[in-house]
Amino acid sequence: MTYPYQGEYAEGLLAEGKVQDRAEAVLEVLEIRGLVVPEWVRGRITSCRDLDILREWHFRAITVESAEDVFG
Hints:
By secondary structure, this protein is mainly alpha-helical. The protein is built from 3 helices and no strands. It has helices at 4-32, 39-47, 51-61. Helix 1 (4-32) packs antiparallel against helix 2 and helix 1 (4-32) packs parallel to helix 3 (51-61). The termini are far apart.
């Protein structure tokens, strides 16, 4: 038997996993490109909970000249 709160709980866990995966992807792109990622940049990326913003940062990470530039 499935209870309604289990569905919401599971959805929350999945959403959090997507956020963490996207944040890790942003950092991986920056690091693979050989850019220095200061702790404050890493902290801002890993603390973001908005998938749309993380997606935008992920795309920017491909072309920016410094990790700080990922924020626009």
